[in-house]
Amino acid sequence: MADDQREAWPRRDNPWTITNTGKVHSNEWFEVEQNAVVRPDGSHGSYEVVRIRVLGVGILPIDAHGFVHMIGQWRLPLGRYSWEMPEGGAEDGETPLACAKRELKEETGLSAATWREVLTLDLSTSLTDEQAIIFIATDLEAGKPHLMTPKCSRIGTFISSTF
Q: Whole-prediction pTM value?
């Protein structure tokens, strides 16, 4: 969403009131906070929020034939494999583009000559403040992936519609 659209609902119009906030859990990736709130309908309750510590970065790598390269990983919360775009979290001080290049190489072995930032997302907005930036990578060159867990990761190529 563009910044001007975000400003269409200024913070002063927030229908929620937070009366108390406390940390429930914290680690290197995220923290969970518990908020005592007054809901928009006036009722009182608790609202837990997951605060993500890194910017998410995703890459949609599309080769010259229109194939999209994906990574399959076993995802414990889902209890199954999930086909996903290569993605990861930006390190402290790392630009989103540098992160995208690193993650694409690590997860698929691919490098790209052309990069285009196409989307900024707020993810799982009822639960978390996680944000992600998505890139399209083209003019791909193959290399060797550096899968962190090869026993539970797969690389797949899927046909896409014309871009």
A: 0.81
